[in-house]
Specification:
binds FE2/S2 (inorganic) cluster, 371 residues, binds iron/sulfur cluster, alpha/beta, 13 helices
Length: 371
């Protein structure tokens, strides 16, 4: 077996069920059905395998992970395996009792998503009336219990003006960190580029606000920033570099190098039911396909940033250029960069575009689990 350095983090998409219908959902257009989800014992085994492989941090995500009735058991199993556990949640489905149980079994950290800074915006974007009020209640319980909190503000053309308030809210909630995440267009979100693409001016202003806030809040609040990359000149280092830092396990046990990897048609994936996590990480062809720099063509191959951003996002290159091995078109050196910028401005100019909500088929949509 080759000796690829181990991943640091694993994202476990416990379920695709979710009570919200966010138009920017990055989960695939075809969601995993509840009856294909891994059971408690299999997930617990996957967590032990991840720890043995060298994974340190486990991000429990979805869909809405609180839609899993066995969430407390899953967190217990992950902690017993020695993993640092982070729950990525909208808050819907979390009661005070359930949060206290999660605390008792050792949940280390909560990441709470924010669809807007008031009920009108948040409930409209999440497509869930009353969601904002429930989230604010959950935020209070999180503070009372003392979970380290990251607020994840998902921003786009409709709510970027709320960024200053989102920063204030992070402070009020006692968050240690806020992720200012401009929407990335993967999965369902691709259907909503007309409705959600920020304008160039908004993108620039957000960058200024973040820079000022970082200086002002230094030592009090860490600000992670995902800019509106269609308006940028260099791409993000997606997944910290393909096959180097993290891996995703989706609800049916398929193991992916990133959450959108199934949009790349020639890749073949393995499932945890068929092979060990270590074997998959070391030898699965999908992980090998874009690991390192050998796969690159020019301009990336001869670029001095190739070990900085690893050519950007493979899934974005696939979605926009039709070639996952191409330079991310966000990059100013890509022959498609100019066209992408024009496309971004065209999307951003669609003032009347409607939101296309993520509607779940009946068997996938989740009612909040009250326990
Ligand atoms: Fe990154 Fe490739 Fe652009 Fe260089 S050419 S900056 S490696 S995406
Ligand atoms: Fe797949 Fe960026 S989302 S590489």
């Amino acid at each position: 077996m080759s000796t690829v350095a181990p991943p640091i983090a694993m994202l476990a998409e416990l379920t695709h069920r979710c009570p919200l219908s966010c138009p920017y959902c990055s989960n695939p257009v075809e969601l995993a059905r509840q009856n294909s989800e891994l059971d408690t014992a299999t997930w617990s085994d996957v967590f032990r395998q991840a720890a043995d492989l060298g994974v340190l941090q486990l991000h429990l995500s979805g869909g809405e992970p609180a839609s899993r009735r066995d969430l407390v058991d899953l967190v217990r199993a992950a902690r017993e395996a020695g993993l640092y556990t982070n729950l990525i949640t909208s808050g819907i489905g979390l009661t005070e009792k359930r949060l206290r149980e999660l605390d008792a079994v050792g949940l280390d950290h909560v990441q709470l998503s924010l669809q807007g800074t008031d009920a009108t915006m948040a409930d409209e974007i999440g497509g869930y009336r009353g969601g904002f009020a429930r989230k604010m209640q959950v935020a209070e319980w999180i503070k009372e219990i003392g979970f380290p909190l990251t607020l994840n503000a998902v921003l786009h053309r409709r709510n970027l003006h709320q960024l200053p308030r989102a920063l204030e809210m992070a402070e009020e909630m006692g968050a240690r960190r806020i992720e200012v995440a401009t929407v990335q267009f993967h999965g369902w979100a691709l259907k909503n580029r007309d409705a959600l693409m920020p304008t160039r001016e908004q993108a620039k202003k957000a960058t200024q606000i973040v820079a000022e806030a970082r200086a002002r809040l230094k030592g009090r609040l860490v600000i992670d920033y995902v800019p509106a990359d269609y308006h940028e000149d260099f791409p993000k280092r997606c997944m910290g570099g393909w096959g180097t830092t993290g891996l995703n396990v989706v609800p049916d046990g398929t193991v992916l190098p990133c959450h959108a990897a199934q949009t790349i048609p020639h890749l073949r994936f393995d499932r945890v039911q068929d092979r060990s996590l270590a074997e998959i990480w070391q030898t699965n062809m999908a992980f090998d396909a874009y690991r390192g720099t050998e796969w690159m063509a020019d301009p990336c191959r001869s670029c001095d940033r190739k070990t900085v951003d690893f050519g950007g996002c493979r899934c974005q290159a696939m979605a926009i250029v039709g070639d996952a091995g191409a330079t991310d078109p966000v990059c100013v050196k890509s022959p498609h960069h100019g066209a992408l910028q024009t496309q971004a401005d065209q999307h951003a100019a669609q003032a009347d575009a409607h939101l296309t909500y993520r509607k779940m088929p009946a068997k996938i949509a989740a009612e909040p689990v009250e326990m």
